[in-house]
Amino acid sequence: MARFDTFFQTALTELERNGTRRVMRNVERRDAVTIVRDGRVLLDFSSNDYLGLAHHPLVIERACAWARQWGGGSGASRLVSGTTPAHQQVEARLAAFKKTQAALLFASGWQANASVLSALCRLAMTRTGEAPLVFTDRLNHASLHHGCQAAGIRQIRFRHNDLEHLSALLESRRNQPGMRFIVTESVFSMDGDRVDVAGLRTLAERHGAFLYLDEAHATGVLGPQGQGLSGLTDGIDLVMGTFSKALGSFGAYVAGSRAMCDWLVNCCSGFVYTTALPPANLGAIDAALELVPGMEAQRQHLHDNARQVRQAIRQMGLSTGTSSTQIIPVEIGDIGRTMAFAAILEREGILGVPIRPPSVPPNASRIRLALSAAHDRTMIDRLIAALATATAEVVA
Ligand code: PMP
Predict the structure, then answer these.
(1) Does residue 19 surpass a pLDDT of 80?
(2) Catalytic residue selected from 87, 98, 217, 301
(3) Domain map of the chain by residue range?
């Protein structure tokens, strides 16, 4: 026995008692639409590879080519000796894609949100001598919460995607000192609904607030040329997104003004104190950024599939909540039923992940379906048939 086994085991036993203990299951093989687990082939409706780019030949080829040219790792952090022309090329491509003055690469979306937000809050505190007022959507991703926590900020949370509530909260603090931040997502990871970016921008302007938008699930999928919802308007002060979802690889970006990016290079610990992204990763990102603007037909196919699946689920008498994107929750509520529903889908050859607290609020357990442009008609029909079987056995 290791010295602290009891310490950890007690916590694990508690999780088991609550029915919330998680385990990682091995995926033996995968392609854009299937995985092999325990020797069984499953149609994959769990991945965030929304455009099927993780297995695109150009993405794989450029990852290999850049590794051959630059090596397996970058060797140092960006400010030491880790910045190469490959990093600069990708950042220039990104800024052009997002139509911003500048863009910066980060090691992951989690790391970007957790470190950028805390650095921003600290700057606001130093500049104004007052704690900033940070308005956040109740369903924001854990990394955004972490960023606020790391800065010791007490968030002012507005009801999910409710801009009237946000407006009232901003109004009620009109005379309070401190810089204002509005922090939200353009597409929510568990609900698949979209934010009204133009409405947000109007509110941010009216209250002089800094607008921080997480485009993790919109980048590549929505907006002109897959640019994300920030592409529908200007005036978003900071846009972040990841390469780990529709762009098919790994890493993240922040896009915005030159001055903001230059400041982050100096003051954001999650940028300064970590090793620069490795060349193979940069090659994959570069190829994805080249491909994404021209993938309009794939985006259309993805949205058509999503519309069909949402409609079928509603016809089964189940709710898909406020989803209007490729992320479709099948809302079940109870943890036990949700787990049983997922098990039936798996028996029918479909992988759709059950999501339960703490990832979602209590009694909001659901199956989170994530569609890909690589799914064809037959695959969508198989999904709908399996959903109908699981509904009949567990819910009806
Ligand atoms: N923001 C949102 C909204 C996300 O859903 C995620 C990933 N789950 C992240 C940030 C983190 O991104 P990454 O996986 O690149 O760390």
Answers:
(1) no
(2) 217
(3) 25-51+296-395, 57-293
